[in-house]
Amino acid sequence: MADTTAHKDEEQAPITERIPAVGWVWKNLFSTPLNTVLTLFSLWLIWKVGFSFVDWAFLKGVLFADSRVACREISPHGACWGIISERFDIFVYGRYPHEHRWRVNLSFILLIVALAPVLWETMPFRKRGLLFTVAYPFIAGWLLAGGLFGLDPVNTRNFSGFMLTLVIGVTGISLSLPIGVALALARRSSMPVLRIIAVVFIEFIRGVPLITLLFIASVLLAYFLPPGTDFDLIIRVLIMVTLFASAYMAEVIRGGFQALPRGQYEAAEALGLSYWKSLQKIYLPQVLRISIPGIVNSFIGLYKDTTLVIIIGLLDPLGIGRSLLSDAKWAGLAAEMYLFVALFYFISCFAMSRYSLYLERKLEREQAAEQN
Amino acid sequence: MRTLATIAAALAVAASFALSAPASAGTLEDVKARGSLKCIINTGLIGFAFTDANGQWQGFDVDFCRATAAAVLGDPNAVEFVNATGKTRFTLLNSGEGDLLYRNTTVTMSRDADLKLTFLGVNYYDGQGFIVPKSLGISSAHDLDGASVCIQTGTTTELNLADFFRANNISYESVPIETNEEARQTYLAGRCDAYTTDHSGLAATRASFDDPSAHVLLPEIISKEPLGPAVRQGDDEWADVVRWVMTALIEAEEYGITSGNADQLVSGSDNPSVRRILGVEGSYGSFIGLDEEWARRAIKSVGNYGEIFERHLGPNTPIGLERGLNAQWTDGGLLYAYPIR
After folding, report:
1. Complex ipTM above 0.95?
2. Cα B199 versus chain centre, distance
């Protein structure tokens, strides 16, 4: 008897309970009339927009063609990806001289080598790898600009395209962290001179938009430098971007210091550790861990801000795209160009954000393990 | 008080020194010493400045830069192109980031006098025009009564448009837009009946339509937009170089000197004007601090004015502009080069 009842119950249980997915859909999407209407409307919108996008971009899109006119002959209403496939080199290398492009490639490969020991903590020979990481910016600078040890000099005016984004982004990111830590320490310091300098610097930089700093770098500095000095524009921009990012980084790190429980400071003092020892062993590891989301956030912001250099006439991928659109062969393909550049930025930034999530989880696990 | 006054005076002296510093050196000597010419151009404008398949800058304005480099340095590729937006171009020139400006810049009194520039003539006579769909059945701007017109905000085109329609007692509705690309989309989507901007820009925009033949440029030109090169005020020696290189290219067309026949004409022409341009007669190069083959190199590198025009803007390009005002004076145009003699 009991058996049959149970069997009956099971048979009569609503479908929403028997198949969990259906249950979830019912509960979240169709529970009330309003929800049902909203769901149906959203589905219709996704279908409408999504399908016409897929249709335009892929089904009717033309991947290879040597001009817009040629694209239109193949498919009159689809996307013309020819502007990307035909001009891919220029998006990547910009106006970097053809015969020297291997130097850009080599720098990129070395960048991966330099990043490996930072990102992969259990790497063999990690210590030596980190030494290379520290040296990398200088090696890459020499490779790209040349002029020393037998490498032909390449005018930095030719730095453009994705390589320019990487040059500015990597320099800003790798230099802003140490400078930011130093600034945060200075701002927390008990020495008035150091503290005031740090406060003034941080507040000045934070009070001025990056675009203004870039204008200062490109235009105003020339008035102040002695006549005839040819202070490289890219270097000026790198300095400004780094200073800008450092000020923000300093505040992120300072936030980390403030989040540290008071007990940690007292414990460090009670143990009689020196300032540098307690910084190295107690404060910094915890502060950096707390600050990871903020740090990565700043990195991503900085990376995307690099595109502002277009205003001062440097050709980042967007600038390259714009100059390509002025070619009568490709004019009018703005949508394709912007989508492609957006995809590039998305891939880079999404990768950074995923890595930071992984790092946070890993550190949380380690912390939990320590506490057990 | 005295200390304050002293400090103020010292600051003023320092500031005036700092501000006048970049202009004090002779640009011609700087360029020769550097071995390259810093030429300020557009960040991208169809026909005037764009990057080709090799990532090299090409275009009407770009060729004038190259010609100047060929005349001064002997190499049309010894140019560092400095890309400027409409906002940054004059500051870049005045701060010394560029040696000259070839960026489809309208010559106006305020720019010449107030911004402390020296304009050196006109290399392109432009003017504001209209484009409308053929289906509208309009053949004159006077028929635009009640039309909606796309205009770029914050430009002189906005004022010109208001002036023109008020003078002719025509009502219209303006559709403000930011950039040329946006205007293109708005116009094609039918949100405005007509689009107005510089004539060359309209032709270039039309060239980028999928069906250019469905749109017409109206014959009325409602403003003067003489586009020309500029240098910093107060460096006459350098201004002479830029002015006469441009003049030589225009006069070369008048006398039939092309990139192809320049070398033959050196010995094969009896025309004194041709011989002066090519540096066979007289010593005109030395007047502007160059050698005698300056103009010959410029013409051989990019061709005369007509060749440059045909290559980037003319009827055989997608832009397909007629010479119009930019024809030689002998052909009914406005190009009337100062004689090289």
Report:
1. no
2. 14
